[in-house]
Amino acid sequence: MKILTPVLCVAALSVVACAQEKSDVALLRSGAGSSAGLHPQSQPATAPLPAPRAPRAPAQYNEVPMSRPIVALTFDDGPHGSLTPRLLDTLAQRQVKATFYVIGRNVEAHPEIARRIVEEGHEIANHTWSHPALSGLSAARVAEELRLTHQVVLETTGYRMTNLRPPYGAYNERVREVAFNGHGYDTIMWSVDPLDWKFRNSARVSRELISGAAPGAVLLCHDIHPTTVAAIPPVLDDLLARQFQFVTIDRLMSMDQSGRQDSNLRPPGPKPGALPS
Fold first, then answer.
1. How far apart are CA 218 and CA 188, in angstroms?
2. Where are the beta strands (DSSP E) in the chain?
3. Which of 24, 46, 94, 255 is deepest in the core (most CB within 10 A)?
4. CA 60 to each of CA 37, 97, 238, 261, 276: distance values in angstroms, whole numbers, following the listed order
5. Residue 160: exposed, middle, or buried by beta-carbon count in 10 A (0-12, 13-18, 19+)?
C-alpha cells in the first residue's frame, strides 16, 4: 500500500484558509501550554516503515470483511506514563501486536514509551495533538492537529504513521480529505466498543471485548484507564485459546479483498469521554 507524498497545507487550502490557519494555529499552541513545542533532543529509533500503498481515494474502516479469526486490538489516548508500559509487558508476554492511537502531546511527554511501542513491533497511528472533536474545526485546524502529531512521532520514533482515528469518532468528509491529502491517512473507526471510558469495571470490559470479537473486527480500548489495562490479559488468553490472531490496523487493512473504499458498517456516532490526564 503506497503512502501518498505529503502535501503542504498551503497547497491544499485557499489563501483565505491559510490566513485562518495562522490564527487557529496560534490559538492551538497557546492552548497547549508549555507542552506544545517538540523535543529537539528526541532521537528517532530504528524502525521499519509500513509497506507502501497503491494510489486511491481515502478510505474509512470499521472492520475488514473476512472469514479468518483475525482481529485488530487498538488503544487510544496514550501513551500513559505507567499504564502503557504495563500494557506493553502484557502484550509482549503473549507475543501480541496492537495499534496505539497516540495523542501528540503525550508522545512529547513520554518519548521513551513511544519508542518502545515501535521497537516492540506495534503500530503507532494519529489521534491528534490535543484530542479535539475534528468535525467542528476548520480545515486548517484539522491539518495542524495532525501535522504536529505526525511530526513528533516521526522525530521521536522514526515511524511514519498511515492512518487516523478521530477523537470521539467525530469526523466528516472535510476531515477525511485533509487527513488523506496531507499524510495519506485512512480514517479508522471500530466495530467493538466496550465503553471502557464509561464503565471502569475490568470484568465488564473483558466480557464486552470477548463477546464482540469476530473475524476482521477492530477492538477499541483506552490505555489510560487502569481498569482497561487490567481487563486485557483475560481477553488475550480467551481469544488466543480460540485461535484468534492479533494484527495491527495497517496489516488488517492489507488483508481487505472486498474492493471497497469503505468498510460495510456505518461509522459509529461521536462518543463522549474525558481527555487523558
1. 9
2. 60-61, 70-76, 99-102, 123-126, 163-164, 186-188, 218-222, 245-247
3. 24
4. 31, 22, 29, 7, 25
5. middle
pLDDT of residue 22: 44
Q: Which of 34-48, 86-100, 166-180 has the lowest mean pLDDT?
A: 34-48
Among 258, 245, 180, residue whose Cα is nearest residue 217: 245
Helix (H, G, I), strand (E, B) or coil at 183: helix
> Is the dihedral angle over the CA atoms 227, 233, 120, 216 positive or is it negative?
negative
Give just the sign of the alpha carbon dihedral 79, 161, 44, 132: negative
Q: How confident is the model at residue 105 (pLDDT cuts 50, 70, 90)?
A: very high
- State the catalytic residues: 76, 222
Pairing of strands 70-76, 99-102: parallel
DSSP H helices in 69-170: 83-93, 104-109, 111-119, 139-157
- At residue 227, φ and ψ (nearest 5 deg) are -65, -35
CA distance 165 to 126: 6
| Residues across the chain | 277
- The CATH code for residues 12-36+60-254 is 3.20.20.370
Residue 60: pLDDT band with limits 50, 70, 90? confident
- In sequence order, the β-bridge partners of residue 245 are 70
Q: Is the pLDDT of residue 32 over 90?
A: no
For residue 178, the tally of other CB atoms under 10 A from its CB is: 29
Instruction: Count the Cβ atoms, other than its own, within 10 Å of residue 131.
Output: 21
> Do residues 2 and 180 touch, judged by C-beta distance below 8 A?
no
Distance between CA atoms of residues 212 and 250, nearest Å = 21
